[in-house]
Recover the amino acids of this structure.
């Protein structure tokens, strides 16, 4: 992918990052703090401090992972195909020609809806195709879906 | 039927609608009756009173016959210039329209018990079908099945108007390859059966060395390995017996089977991916096995498993020539190696990992014990993906996947290229595939 194309990469909305950070805090940090409080009360202050430290490190690492995962997501609409990249540990790039798209899904779970977000999934005739763009604002998701559908129709090639 | 939904259907009702062969309910019900008879026989052995048995028989047998007859009566089909229309169902009716332009392959299947009566089943495969064939027509008279197949394929390729009478007599198929029985049997035995026999003997020898008294139990616990491998071998030989590859006006014609026979027809340009594999033990004989993948091929069905083989076993040169013929052009040489760093990631197969690209195909080779050559036609590429795991990135490597619409073969996978080469290859293949689609 050349230099000028680099600027046209689009990213999921920052709200996705907030949502995922919120999830980490809710599911890890809060129960962690409660555990620390319990340990400090039952066993003693020193152990409580150690538990607090461990919990803090775990939460910090998770937050970094969430952040990096968010940063890795990107999609690029090129002349003939859509490029999606993702993944931190395993980096993946998918290139899907518009003419190969069979259908496009826009999905949104209850949490994502609350943040006004939606996920766009591309399906081709190949089961292995895994082009997914999460965390798009609803308007952008619909714009992307409609554009993909229109381009797909214009360039449709038989299987 | 659909007459309520579709008034047009009533207008030309009887207009070309055809029923399946009248013996169909007998064949379909026959298996059910066998099960009932077997159960009854069991009961009889236990000396159950004969009266209730007769009642059971008297109810189930006529009931099965009646049900079979009703469902036979409800099922009918006809061919229009663009569609195959099938209506079926007694309680829940189903009306299905299969657009002929979407047909990927047509199979004529003859289970053993149907062959005895001169009947055959016709199966149409369409893109995006579920796990079953889209329109199984079971059963038709053999000559009807053949004629219907020709008609459907002609209409699908737009070669013929719908008028059946105007159809020219079918040209004879040109046989390209026939697989002799000897190599078929030996090549099958040289696979799983031999390996499992070796494992079996090893286990026995080791057990005997440790404790002679344990040999008996050891046989009892490991003999299933042999049985499994044996049944696999028998099944494969039965399915692929007398394998013939022929070229017909409709496309490629594959014929095989000893008891149940199957004739597959793959119209030109429907092949999504090809794999040639060469197990270690076959190498002294220079044998390879060729498999093809067609979009929409149903994986199984209850009794006739699609083997997907284009050639169960053949000398390498013959296989390569046939693949080139099927795909319409010679294959590029797979001559681009992976960087030396790939040896740290895949020490055993790094030297095998090669790629070749030309204007029409991607060819990749891989494998440790079995050398595998995967071929993806560029005109069939659905999407391209690169993946790079942590260990790969440390070594500066990435894998490229060329996805096609097949069910059983992965298209072409190009593992452990250098990262920059993977991106360059992706762009190269993307451009070539775009040109190939036009």
């Amino acid at each position: 992918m050349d230099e000028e194309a680099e600027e046209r990469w689009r990213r999921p909305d920052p709200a996705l990052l907030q949502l995922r950070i919120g999830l980490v805090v809710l599911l890890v940090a809060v129960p962690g703090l409660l555990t620390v409080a319990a340990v400090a009360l039952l066993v003693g202050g020193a152990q409580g401090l150690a538990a607090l430290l461990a919990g803090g490190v775990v939460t910090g690492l998770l937050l970094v992972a969430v952040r990096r995962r968010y940063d890795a997501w990107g999609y690029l609409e090129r002349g003939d195909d859509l490029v999606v990249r993702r993944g931190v540990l395993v980096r993946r790039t998918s290139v899907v020609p518009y003419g190969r798209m069979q259908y496009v899904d826009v999905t949104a779970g209850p949490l994502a809806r609350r943040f006004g977000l939606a996920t766009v999934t591309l399906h081709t005739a190949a089961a292995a195709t895994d082009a997914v763009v999460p965390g798009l604002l609803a308007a952008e998701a619909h714009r992307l879906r409609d554009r993909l559908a229109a381009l797909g129709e214009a360039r449709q090639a038989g299987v | 039927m659909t007459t309520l939904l579709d008034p047009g259907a009533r207008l030309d009702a009887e207009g070309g609608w055809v029923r399946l062969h009248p013996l169909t309910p007998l064949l379909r019900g026959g298996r059910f009756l066998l099960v009932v008879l077997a159960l009854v026989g069991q009961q009889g052995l236990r000396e159950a009173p004969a009266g209730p048995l007769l009642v059971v028989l008297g109810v189930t047998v006529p009931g099965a016959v009646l049900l079979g007859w009703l469902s036979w009566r409800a099922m009918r089909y006809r061919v229009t210039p663009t569609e195959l229309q099938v209506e079926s169902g007694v309680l829940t009716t189903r009306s299905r329209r299969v657009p002929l332009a979407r047909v990927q392959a047509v199979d004529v299947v003859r289970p053993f018990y149907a062959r005895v009566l001169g009947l055959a089943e016709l199966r149409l495969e369409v893109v995006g079908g579920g796990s079953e064939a889209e329109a199984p027509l079971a059963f038709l008279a053999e000559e009807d099945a053949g004629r219907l197949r020709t008609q459907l394929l002609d209409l699908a390729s737009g070669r013929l108007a719908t008028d059946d009478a105007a159809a020219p007599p079918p040209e004879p198929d040109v046989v390209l390859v026939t697989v002799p029985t000897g190599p078929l049997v030996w090549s099958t035995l040289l696979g799983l059966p031999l390996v499992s026999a070796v494992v079996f003997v090893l286990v026995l020898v080791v057990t005997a060395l440790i404790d002679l008294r344990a040999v008996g139990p050891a046989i009892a616990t490991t003999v299933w390995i042999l049985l499994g491998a044996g049944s696999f071998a028998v099944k494969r030989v039965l399915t692929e017996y007398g394998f013939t590859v022929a070229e017909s006006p409709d496309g490629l014609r594959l014929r095989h089977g000893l008891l149940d026979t199957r004739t597959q027809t793959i119209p030109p340009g429907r092949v999504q991916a090809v794999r040639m594999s060469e197990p270690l033990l076959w190498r002294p004989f220079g044998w390879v096995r060729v498999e093809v993948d067609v979009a929409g091929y149903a994986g199984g069905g209850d009794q006739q498993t699609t083997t997907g083989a284009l050639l169960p076993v053949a000398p390498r040169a013959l296989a390569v020539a046939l693949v080139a013929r099927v795909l319409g052009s010679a294959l590029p040489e797979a001559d681009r190696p992976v960087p030396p760093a790939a040896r740290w990631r895949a020490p055993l197969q790094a030297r095998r990992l090669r790629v070749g690209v030309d204007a029409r195909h991607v060819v990749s080779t891989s494998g440790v014990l079995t050398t595998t050559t995967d071929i993806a036609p560029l005109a069939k590429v659905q999407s391209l993906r690169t993946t790079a795991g942590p260990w790969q990135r440390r070594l500066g490597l990435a894998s490229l996947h060329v996805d096609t619409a097949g069910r059983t073969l992965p298209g072409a996978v190009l593992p452990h290229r250098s990262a920059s080469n993977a991106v360059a290859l992706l762009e190269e293949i993307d451009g070539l595939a775009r040109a190939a689609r036009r």
User: Anything to note?
Assistant: Chain B has a mean pLDDT of 85. The radius of gyration of chain B is 26 Å. Chain B touches chain A at residues 104, 127-128, 295, 380-390, 393, 398, 401, 403-407, 410-411, 423, 426, 430, 433-434, 437 (CB under 8 Å). Chain B has twelve helices and 21 strands.
